[in-house]
Amino acid sequence: MMRQVLLLNASYEPLTTLPLRRAVVLVLREKAEIVHDDISGAVLRSASVVLAVPSVIRLRRFVRVPFRARVPLTRAALMRRDNHRCAYCGRRAETIDHIVPRSRGGTHTWENCVASCMACNIDKADRLLEELGWMLRVAPVAPRGAHWRLIGAVHHDGDPQWAPYLPENAA
Questions:
Q1: 133: number of Cβ within 10 Å
Q2: Is 65 strand, coil or helix?
Q3: 91-138: per-residue pLDDT in tens?
Q4: Alpha-carbon distance 12 to 35, whole Å?
Q5: 60 φ, ψ (degrees, to nearest 5)
Q6: How open is the CA angle 74-152-149, to the nearest 5 degrees?
Q7: Is 99:107 a contact under the CB 8 Å cutoff?
Q8: Which of 16, 73, 109, 118 shows a CA-CA span of 20 to 30 A to 25?
Q9: Which residues, at least 6 apart from 48, have a Cβ–Cβ distance to it below 8 Å?
């Protein structure tokens, strides 16, 4: 898995996680500053710059985050909600499955969509869970709260430097 960095707003409010490369670009362009270096002490070197690998960065200017009553359903957000795990067997998920198939009147909503591995998705096809005798590992719900982008952040390698910035209900 790619190294992730926690991005904070200028007010130290957590905004999201982003790839190390994007974080380094923000720091080098002076859009953000490093709050915590990586605990391993790793550094990035170029011909003219030596930069500590960041674990947490903070934007220099405040960014207003628009309020949305309901989080939009996207593939990336659904995979983050389900932590890239199949809702049926627990293996690594590659696809999205509708619990009640759309061919049977199911809707494309948070409560009816789950992450699924390819094998389970093919086996399920357009059947209902009751027909197969399957159970969901966790009931699907729409993410709530201002920090929905941080879903799964607490499961990310347990970086202890993130803990002071993550709310208790980010998982």
A1: 6
A2: coil
A3: 999 999 999 999 999 999 999 999 999 999 999 999 999 999 999 999
A4: 10
A5: -80, -30
A6: 50
A7: no
A8: 73
A9: none
CB-CB neighbours of 8 under 10 Å: 19
CA 96 vs. chain centroid, Å, equals 15
State the amino acid at position 25 in one-letter form: V
**Residue ranges per domain, the chain?**
4-66+146-165, 75-132
pLDDT digit string (tens) for 37-91?
Answer: 998 889 999 999 999 999 999 999 999 977 767 788 889 889 988 989 999 999 9
The candidate with the shortest Cα–Cα distance to 125, out of 99, 107, 91, 105, is 99
Q: Is the pLDDT of residue 146 over 70?
A: no
Report residue 76: phi and psi, to 5°. -65, -45
Which string of b and e fits 76-106 if b means at least 16 CB within 10 Å? Answer: ebbbbbbebbbbbeeeebeebbbbeeeeeee
Query: 155 versus 47: which is more confidently predicted?
Result: 47
